[in-house]
Design brief:
Residues 47-60 have a biased composition (Basic residues). The chain has 966 residues and is of the alpha+beta class. It has six domains: 1-43 and 526-554 and 707-812, Rossmann fold (3-Layer(aba) Sandwich), CATH 3.40.50; 48-155, 2-Layer Sandwich (Alpha-Beta Plaits); 304-406, Calcium-transporting ATPase, cytoplasmic transduction domain A; 421-525 and 836-895, no CATH class; 557-705, Calcium-transporting ATPase, cytoplasmic domain N (3-Layer(aba) Sandwich), CATH 3.40.1110; 902-965, no CATH class. The chain is built from 32 helices and 36 strands. The strands form nine sheets. The protein has a seven-stranded mixed β-sheet, with helices on both faces. The radius of gyration is 36 Å and the shape is elongated.
Length: 966
């Protein structure tokens, strides 16, 4: 009988009222085996999922963060683009630059989508089919003032590029070399003050002009050029504000010298050192900010660095001397590995590509792929993944995935795409940045005019300009308080306002936190597909979980066989089939009939029945045909001999709804009452009841149970503890579903049973209509429509298939508690984004008035000089970046209630243990690690293990990992 495709079979079988999934567990090896089914099943949900694309991009008509409706257009345009390129940009100074570049790019008729990451300064551009070259884009960006470099696919993460940091470092060094002599001339060489060179110009003033002029060209030229090009394109950003402040100080000083040439008694001071110090402090801030931004992608850099550069390829060659074939190993570039190549991986070496073990046994550390601290045993036939570390002995593998198709490459690509995305909250920074610089120029002008008029008109108290913290002696020596020079004070205040104003902190608040947060998530096996996902996950009020394969293990096992003896004996007598103890009696007959129908089934129920039948040494009957019946099961025809002739016996296996609806049983038969009672009792025990009928007469009821995952209990309790509603959805019957829910602590009113695959998405929409923000947790295969319909779709146990398109979050490990980690991480990251915004806004709200002199009436003498303003401006951006970097200290919640000892046996005879250093009471090292004493923090009792362990010991900051042979 031809077997239907996985996707068709899943839909049909789930329509019968059962949950369906392909294969068994969802660990790494099985994750690869599920790829084909996953891709087919997610195909239908791609269009729905596009509305929640992980990247926020600009559309033709918009220059700010788009609305959800625009998101769908953006995702469609990205899908339609024939190519996507990445450009590394230089010269970006603030969020205004980002908006200017995106608007400029989107004006190109060949550009469909464009987004620039404020933290990495990488532009991701989707090109139309008619756009054949990127040279014109690069040239246009150069003319705009932002030199661009094309990033190739093999370049990996752009954060390893230190060109920008090195550029700021060189500029800072030159700036310091100029500033030191200017500072010394201003404050140390007092004797030069009275030495006249020409007119009223002193030697000191001329020397400062001689030093500061080349500094303005060499160091200040970078800011002036960027400001000029921005002004040409009607954009005013941080460079423009800096140029006004720095240039104003320099130009005013030059004017003072020119006036002194004519009027020798002109006594206004020069401010060359102020201009120099402004340039130095601002450049220092940009250097520190750029260096700190490089650390925001440390996790991504470490992931990319996991990929080894070399590989040992095994091949056979024929010796020319005698024609004998020999096996040789050659050291090749890892990028040269092709599908099917045989590779040798030595101990302490990383896997160059994904592959299958063909020879050898070892222990492989897969922590960088799935966050699992316990190394995994590998034998022939097991999957290994590029970048994972071989620990104990050599392995020979066959390459199955190379290049961009490896699990590591997929993870790096997803994390990088997420880091290049924008969260909707970024719209706040974009909207402020668009008007920030022009507004600050107005504030600066108002500040200048106010103080110029107020001091000259004596509208202010002269005591405002004298510090309240001066001693009595200092106050008496000063005499009566005097007004400062009105023009000088007004000018210095205006410059301080221009310099202290900083939109950079606002622009960095979101992207730096998103970059660090997504990297931290990848480290813990949680892949988050964008900043918008983080923001939406913080709003989740309800979590809907699929039952089979998500809350339960997904491996149904036979628990009960209830045979209707009168009907079984009648059937046995009719066809001369033995029902003796040697063939399992009547129960064995029921199993053989059910297994005959389910033999070709890929559904967990069918596989469970067939496995149990074979495990009992029973041989299923041979079915002539079998077909899936939409509504709840399978029907088969079995040819049997009776009275010398062959009769075709119809066997139906499925739930009661199928048998009754399809008229496959005689509902009036006298044994139906007993069958229904048996089924109801089984379902109340959280078991799935399956009826077996022969020629419309029920001959038995089978019960299969799916074990609840150990961490499911803690997961449900943890989600409820943080105020989330937990719902369970399943295609199983209501009795079984409610029994499982009761064990997990889920309210019966929050159980959705007998839900068909397409109905899951309908229930999601219904819950959203009730005002809930819904997160759906599933395996990413048959749950694709529901994952796509949810506000946040979470795929659990993706294994190596990390690019589950219908999901917004992908949990690599098959551990349901990772849902709690994902939501907790999302909340933590978004709280940090809010904190960053509070700091950035508070900084500007406080510093701008302080620079303008608004604090003088309240704190006498408190006035921010331009140099101090430059330092404050630099610190604002650095503080935001450091705040985001603090997310690297994140510690995920645990499901073990504090248990710090973990032991797991594996088929190779190894024992892996993770022990907290604080609980390692004592150990000695001889041939191995002996007499280990481990504390159990859950019951505070002491467990002592005295045995010799052979293997490797790896230590981290707070724990030791032992990979040992007992």
């Amino acid at each position: 009988i031809p077997c239907p495709s996985d996707a068709v079979a899943i839909d049909a079988i789930e329509a019968m009222g059962f949950d369906a999934q392909v294969g068994g567990g969802a660990d790494l090896e099985q994750g690869l085996q599920k790829n084909a089914a996953r891709e087919r099943s997610t195909a239908g949900s791609k269009q729905k999922n596009r509305r929640k694309t992980s990247s926020t991009r600009h559309v033709k008509s918009a220059g700010a963060t788009p609305s959800p409706a625009d998101e769908r257009k953006i995702a469609t345009k990205l899908a339609e683009s024939s190519s996507k390129i990445r450009l590394k940009l230089s010269g970006i100074s603030c969020a205004v630059c980002i908006g200017k570049i995106e608007k400029f790019l989107i004006k190109d008729p060949g550009v469909l989508v464009a987004t620039v990451n404020p933290a990495t300064h990488v532009a991701t551009i989707g090109l139309s089919k008619g756009h054949s070259s990127t040279d014109s884009l690069i040239k246009s960006l150069d003319n705009l003032g932002y030199p661009a470099k094309l990033l190739q696919a093999r370049d990996g993460s752009p954060v390893n590029d230190t060109t920008e940091v090195d550029g700021w470092r060189r500029l800072l060094k030159r700036s310091i070399l100029y500033t030191i002599p200017l500072f010394l001339l201003q404050y140390s060489f007092k004797s030069m003050t009275g030495v006249i060179l020409l007119g009223g110009v002193t030697v000191k003033g001329a020397a400062m002009l001689f030093i500061s002029t080349p500094m303005q060209i060499d160091v200040g030229g970078r800011y002036y050029l960027a400001a000029y090009k921005g002004f040409q394109h009607n954009t005013i950003g941080m460079d423009f504000l800096v140029s006004l402040g720095v240039g104003g100080s320099y130009v005013s000083s030059v004017l003072v010298l020119l006036i002194r040439l004519i009027h020798e008694n002109f006594d206004k001071p020069v401010m060359f050192e102020t201009s120099a110090m402004l340039l130095t402090f601002i450049t220092l801030g940009k250097f520190l900010e750029t260096s700190a931004r490089g650390h925001t992608t440390a996790a991504l850099s470490k992931l990319a660095a996991m990929q080894p550069a070399r590989a040992l390829r095994i091949r056979k060659r024929t010796r020319s001397s005698d024609g004998v074939q020999e096996t040789v190993e050659e050291d090749i570039d890892a990028t040269s590995v092709e599908l099917g190549d045989i590779l040798r991986v030595l101990p302490a070496s990383a896997m160059p590509v994904d592959g299958v073990v063909v020879k050898g046994q070892s222990y492989v550390d897969e922590k960088m792929i799935n966050g699992e601290p316990v190394p995994v045993a590998k034998r022939p036939g097991d999957m290994v993944f590029g970048g994972t570390l071989n620990q104990l002995s050599p392995l020979v593998i066959e390459a199955t995935r190379v290049g961009d198709d490896t699990a590591l490459s997929q993870i790096v690509r997803l994390v990088e795409e997420a880091q290049n995305s924008k969260a909707p909250i970024q719209a706040l920074a974009d909207s402020i940045a668009a008007v920030f610089a022009p507004f600050m120029i107005v504030v600066s002008m108002v500040t200048f005019l106010w103080w110029l008029v107020a001091i000259n008109m004596r509208w202010v108290d002269p005591r405002w300009f004298v510090s309240d913290y001066l001693t009595d002696d200092a106050m008496s020596s000063m005499g009566d308080a005097e007004y400062p020079d009105a023009a000088l004070f007004a000018f210095m205040s205006a410059i301080a306002v221009l310099v202290v104003a900083c939109p950079c902190a606002l622009g960095l608040a979101t992207p730096t936190a998103v970059m660090v947060g997504t990297g931290v998530g990848a480290r813990h096996g949680v892949l988050i597909k964008g900043g918008d996902v983080l923001e939406e996950a913080c709003k989740v009020t309800l979590v809907m979980m699929d039952k089979t394969g998500t809350l339960t293990c997904g491996d149904l096992s036979l628990t009960d066989v209830s045979a209707m003896e009168p009907q079984c004996k009648a059937f046995s007598k009719r066809f001369g089939i033995s029902c003796g103890a040697d063939v399992g009696g009547c129960q064995g007959l029921v199993l053989r009939l059910a297994a005959a129908a389910e033999l070709s089934s890929e559904h967990p129920i069918g596989q469970g029945v067939v496995s149990a039948t074979k495990a009992r040494g029973l041989k299923p009957f041979e079915a002539e045909s079998a077909r899936v019946v939409v509504g709840g099961g399978i029907v088969a025809t079995i040819p049997l001999e009776s009275g010398g002739k062959t009769e075709n016996v119809g066997v139906a296996v499925g739930n009661l709804r199928l048998l009754e609806t399809e008229a496959l049983i005689d509902c009036s038969h006298k044994n139906m009452t007993e069958c229904k009672l048996v089924a109801r009792a089984l379902e109340e025990e959280a078991k799935t009841a399956v009826f077996v009928a022969v020629d419309k007469v029920v001959v038995g009821v089978l019960a299969l149970a799916d074990q609840i995952k150990p961490t499911a209990y803690t997961t449900v309790a943890s989600l409820k503890a943080i105020g989330l509603e937990v719902w369970m959805v399943t295609g199983d019957n209501a009795s079984t579903a409610k029994a499982v829910a009761l064990q997990l602590g889920i309210s019966p009113s929050h159980v959705l049973a007998k839900v068909l695959p397409q109905g899951k998405a309908d229930h999601v929409h219904w819950l959203q209509g009730q005002g809930h923000v819904v997160a759906v947790v599933g395996d990413g295969i048959n749950d694709s429509p529901a994952l796509a319909a949810a506000d946040v779709g979470i795929a659990v146990g993706a294994g190596a298939q990390v690019a589950v398109e219908a999901a917004n979050m992908v949990l690599i490990r098959d551990d349901i508690f990772a849902v709690c980690v994902a939501l907790d991480l999302a909340r933590t990251v978004f709280q940090r984004i809010r904190l960053n915004y509070v700091w950035a806004l508070a900084y500007n709200v406080f510093s701008v008035p302080a620079a303008a002199g608004a604090m003088l009436p309240f704190v006498h003498g408190f006035h921010m000089r331009p140099e101090v303003a430059a330092v404050a401006m630099a610190c604002s951006s650095i503080a935001v970046v450091l705040s985001s970097l603090a997310l690297n200290l994140y510690r995920p919640p645990t499901s073990d209630g504090g248990m710090s000892y973990h032991s797991e046996d594996d088929p190779l005879g190894f024992k892996a243990m993770t022990v907290k250093l604080g609980e390692l009471m004592g150990w000695s090292q001889g041939e191995g690690v002996k007499d280990m004493k481990v504390g159990d923090t859950q019951d505070r009792s002491k467990k002592q293990r005295s045995q010799t362990l052979y293997g490797s010991v790896r230590s981290t900051e707070d724990e030791i990992e032992l990979s040992c042979m007992v």
